[in-house]
Amino acid sequence: MQNFRLVATDNIVKISSLKKSFDSITVLNDINLNISEGENLVVLGKSGAGKSTLIRCLIGLIKPDEGEICIFGKKMSEISYEELNELRLKMGFLFQNSALYDSMSVRQNLAFPLRRHKKEYSKDQVDLMVEDMLEHVGLKGAIDKMPAELSGGMSKRIGLARTLMLNPAIMLYDEPTGGLDTVTAKEIIQLILDLQKRKKISSLIITHDLACARMTADRIVMIKEGSIVAEGTYEELEKSKDEGICSYLEKS
Fold this sequence. Notes:
- It is a single chain.
- It is built from nine helices and ten strands.
- It is α/β, with parallel strands linked by helices.
- The chain has a domain at about 1-90 and about 170-180 and about 200-250: 3-Layer(aba) Sandwich (Rossmann fold), CATH 3.40.50.300.
- It has a six-stranded mixed β-sheet with strand order 6-7-8-3-9-10, sandwiched between helices. Strands 2-1-4-5 form a four-stranded antiparallel β-sheet, covered by helices on one side.
- Strand 9 (about 220-225) and strand 10 form a beta hairpin.
- Helix 3 (about 105-115) packs across helix 4 (about 125-135), helix 3 (about 105-115) runs parallel beside helix 5 and helix 4 (about 125-135) crosses helix 5 (about 150-165).
- It is globular and about 55 Å long.
- The protein starts with 10 loop residues before the first strand and ends with a helix.
């Protein structure tokens, strides 16, 4: 099986001329973007702008109609099913709803990816890794709780902890602050920033939350009706004289 590794390039992810339609509705129209090593790239846009479709294309859940996605220098259109599964192990995905297994405790949820993909680890090693990760997200005391006992913010942090168990090289965040109060949202944002600082992970952050974009982004790509309409730092977008961009920033 092909081993994926970080290649000697600034672009860990490169998306070129990506297009996707469902029936007669164009959802993504000529999307071009890249993610550099250690960069937090935010894709900012309102609901229905095409953000979730972009992330589904990126992890191979749906195929684009046109264009190309390259990850670690490998073209997604040319890799085998086995290579795709291996590639996914290097990509962490924090779902909007955290996607914890309801029938498993927090301990079991975090241990699950290790038991499935790292069978060489002993039970003691797995337990120690789970405890260390929970300590990192500030929830070691929740180790034996069930998902139903967790608040929305706790579930989000546990979901992030489980995603990190396999040491991904790329993190994909789908509305990481969605449905959270201001204080809890800031806690999740701080975890994203800490992760970038500690592990130099490249991240794609899909959001319509302007505060999340402002606090996490090294660079922002603004998407509207499936097309990129602006790109730059938050400060650059804030200074834009484009009425559409100014209107979005003011209303968000």
